[in-house]
Write a structure and sequence with these properties.
By secondary structure, the chain is of the alpha/beta class. It is built from 14 helices and 8 strands. The protein has 2 domains: about 170 residues, NAD(P)-binding Rossmann-like Domain (Rossmann fold), CATH 3.40.50.720; about 140 residues, Orthogonal Bundle (N-(1-d-carboxylethyl)-l-norvaline Dehydrogenase, domain 2), CATH 1.10.1040. The protein binds 1,4-dihydronicotinamide adenine dinucleotide (NAI) and 1,3-dihydroxyacetonephosphate. Catalyzes the reduction of the glycolytic intermediate dihydroxyacetone phosphate (DHAP) to sn-glycerol 3-phosphate (G3P), the key precursor for phospholipid synthesis.
Amino acid sequence: MSKSLNIAVIGAGAWGIGLACTYSRIGNVTLWSRSEPGKLAETGRLPRLPEIKLPASINVTTTLPREADVAFLVVPTQALRTISTTLNDILPASVPVIACCKGLEKDTALFPLEIMEQTMPHHPKAVLSGPNFAIEVAEGLPTAATLAASSRLFVQEAARKLTTPNLRLYASTDPIGVQLAGAAKNVIAIGAGITIGANLGENARAALITRALAELGRLVEAMGGQSRTIYGLAGVGDLILTCTGAGSRNYSLGVALGKGNSLSEILAQRSTVAEGALSAATICDLGPRYGVETPIMDAVYRLLKGELTPEQARDELLDRPSRLE
Ligand SMILES: NC(=O)C1=CN([C@@H]2O[C@H](COP(=O)(O)OP(=O)(O)OC[C@H]3O[C@@H](n4cnc5c(N)ncnc54)[C@H](O)[C@@H]3O)[C@@H](O)[C@H]2O)C=CC1
Ligand SMILES: O=C(CO)COP(=O)(O)O
């Protein structure tokens, strides 16, 4: 691919920085930051990923771009509607837009692509999801992810063009499965963290991950997605990473909850997003709506609300009726 590809990355959080770094290897990157980029000129670093010295070729700006060959939207899910509405007014409709957040909008229960169907109706669009810690992508370590859109032709071409030397993209035509997996794995990772924080053991964590995967597969099918998506990068891949990786904010939030801290105490000490804490209520509404039992995600949500202790959740889950695996 020629280096003349102009790539806009909207959002200078950890994941925006990670994507900007990898895309600077195949294109000219403009990275939009909502606030003035701090001491960037002196240090070459941005506050959300201070370990990373930004390649000098990346243009960091607080002005939203008016043109690009592709734009990655990398803000938290709850901020996507506002920013994509603004972008729709200034970015030509021919520019493909890629949603990079993982979660559901709280008020509407919509996935990122569904939000953008409303706010950027005429742009070609896809969603990016997978086992992708921002810092590793920024460091150039090998990574793979799924790019999903309903149009096979579009997504295959986009995955080919947007693969970088360290970020290999696989195309999928199941945006529902990919987005549900991306949203749910954050909640499940909180549950995995709780089992470790509360000293329930590694057996318990492995059982939780595996049974949550089954829960997720049933929900994906009920929602019109493909259960095999759950066994791909956006599903089991991201679950493995976030349920075991200490670098996960959702997992570490779970560990702190398991140790007995309340959600409000934990959130008061953090400035970055843990999407699972924001999406849990909305995800747990999906089960009853689609007629699928989601006992593990429900237990995590009740723990987040302070309605259950880890021990009570353990007892409830172990006490469920016996069934075929
Ligand atoms: N950090 C990671 O390793 C990965 C994160 N993600 C997903 O990417 C999304 C963003 O995560 P991070 O970049 O890690 O979060 P972050 O907390 O590091 O940064 C979020 C960025 O969005 C900006 N922002 C927040 N509210 C905004 C608003 N109302 N309008 C405009 N900008 C706003 C913030 O200023 C900040 O720059 C999340 O959905 C997360 O699940 C996905 C893959 C990897
Ligand atoms: O989505 C991620 C890795 O794929 C990042 O996980 P956390 O948001 O839990 O840090």
